[in-house]
């Protein structure tokens, strides 16, 4: 659960502008931290000499100042061309085809909303096999213009 800022009874709530300033500063800090982490990852990869085409390897290091352990993983993401698979599927045999390929069911959200509005009876049947849970609320600051200097603690 996100940490909530404690508000003292005598403190006034922050305005949306003050919140926007803090939000913007946090986003900039997160971006800088992300970029710094990526640069450091490249240095770790170079320092370990990790060069596997796929798989993982663990590297341990210690000296008089301490010790560390890195595990580097090189994943391979495979994507299937459904049309091409459809053409050759029968030629590899049903048992092999079922063993190496999975079918992933995914709800077409816009079409599901449309069905829910236009045909609630059918939607009620479909909804029996659909689990829905709310995701994280996205916050995007699209504009911040500060015309007077405000002092906002980080």
* CA distance, first residue to last residue: 20 Å
What form results from the Cα inertia axes? flat
Task: Using the CA coordinates, give the radius of gyration.
Answer: 26 Å
Mean pLDDT: 87
For this entry, give a set of tags.
two-stranded antiparallel sheet, 45% helix, 5 helices, flat, 154 residues, alpha+beta, 2 strands
Protein described:
The protein has 154 residues and is of the alpha+beta class. 45% of the residues lie in helices and 12% in strands. It is built from 5 helices and 2 strands. It has a two-stranded antiparallel sheet with strand order 1-2. α4 crosses α5. It starts with 15 loop residues before the first helix and ends in a 27-residue tail after the last helix. The model has no long low-confidence stretch (mean pLDDT 87).
Short summary of the structure?
The chain is α+β, with helices and mostly antiparallel strands.
Secondary-structure map with pairings?
Elements: H1 16-48, E1 55-63, E2 66-74, H2 82-92, H3 94-100, H4 109-118, H5 120-127
